[in-house]
Amino acid sequence: AQSVSQHNHHVILSEAASLELGCNYSYGGTVNLFWYVQYPGQHLQLLLKYFSGDPLVKGIKGFEAEFIKSKFSFNLRKPSVQWSDTAEYFCAVNEAGGGNKLTFGTGTQLKVEL
Amino acid sequence: DGGITQSPKYLFRKEGQNVTLSCEQNLNHDAMYWYRQDPGQGLRLIYYSQIVNDFQKGDIAEGYSVSREKKESFPLTVTSAQKNPTAFYLCASLTRRVGGAEAFFGQGTRLTVV
User: Fold this and answer.
1) Using an 8 Å Cβ cutoff, are B46 and B76 in contact?
2) What are the pLDDT digits (tens) for B8-32?
3) Can you give the CATH number for the domain in which A83 is found?
């Protein structure tokens, strides 16, 4: 069964530090990959997505993610975080064919300190 | 405006009662999903449906049931068999576009069983 793993459950960084959040998935077929963010008290918001082509995708608010097919990974990065990036981040994987299942990881809670 | 509407926003029920959460979309999307969000566990997939009159169990389907009689509607029933029904429930729909897919989310229903 398809699964999505986010190994970092809680991350605390100082402002201006670099961020990398890991995401690995288990599905062997063609996938669409997403990162969502949920700010405190708010709803899910799409940060970025990968469908095909350039494995390095850029999203909103300076975030980017790299798809490494051989590692089944889609890690999220940001060179310099801000206090306003404090939120929960979710990786999601959609099977591009067959069942069309959309599975989320357990989330990473990021806290950015001033 | 096109979107996904979940109702009600808050729902209180007595233990042992079945309750149905509504999810309606006017986006003409084929695929619809129900998730349960609990702190520290991310979004867990309950049921999903690719087309009308067809649906599949997700990762935590026990104690839940769904129907998909119309493309626009995907109601979720939380039955008395669900051991811990108090949670935040999210409905989503997904459309396939050239090159990939995009998911849209409702505002959620917070169910409290007392």
Assistant:
1) yes
2) 999 999 999 999 999 999 999 999 9
3) 2.60.40.10
* Phi, psi angles (nearest 5°) of residue B21: -100, 135
Q: Are A89 and A74 in contact (CB under 8 A)?
A: no
User: Of B44, B41, B91, B102, which Cα lies nearest the Cα of A46?
Assistant: B102
Nearest to B107 among A9, A43, A53 (CB): A43
What distance in Å separates the CA atoms of residue B18 and residue B16, rounded to the nearest whole number? Answer: 7
Instruction: Decide if A37 touches B, using CB distance below 8 A.
Output: no
Q: Which domain holds residue A46?
A: 4-113
The residues facing B102 across adjacent strands are: B95
User: Structural domain tally of chain A?
Assistant: 1
Distance of CA A13 to the CA centre of its chain: 17
What pLDDT digit, counting tens, does each position of B37-87 carry? 998 888 999 999 999 999 999 999 999 999 999 999 999 999 999 999 999
